[in-house]
Amino acid sequence: LQGFQMLARENKEVEFHFVVPDVRSLPDLTRELRLEGRVKMFPFTENIMAHFAKAEVLVATDASDQHPVFLTTKLIEYLNTNRKVLLVSPPTSPGSKLIHQFPETVIHVEEEPFAIARAMKRLHDLHPTEQDFQERFNRMSSFSPVRVAELFMREVTSRLKRPDQVPGRGDTSDIQALGA
Questions:
Q1: How far, in Å, CA of 63 to CA of 69, rounded?
Q2: Is the Cβ–Cβ distance between 114 and 3 less than 8 Å?
């Protein structure tokens, strides 16, 4: 929110919408940053696409862990929309590695208010074409739930056939590569 606050000082029309399980979770910080009326909170809904349709930019955050290993499903969901995306994440996260394929529609930044404000401004000034989004959709087809499950099962099956490659049974290179 501090990054958004910096952007909001320059652009009086911008708003930040949160869809959260508990709408009472942010009002104190919103008041403290003097963003009343600029930050709007909506209760969680199964029909999130209605909120996506109103947004110009979708913001995804990743774990701020030094060695993140998970890819947030929110990022995958956002990349399958025709909206610009801001990913706030460590540079080594799987999400930051994935989004570098989409410089016309996605910006990555670490969790630092000034960097977030600059990235939001850059996103506001980006004007991707329908072709940019279509190329992103085409690349994202490999992230369908069925395809991800298929690749996961193939990897598990492959490792079970080679006990020396199962972590804890000799070879720990995969765990070390993940930063554990």
A1: 9
A2: yes
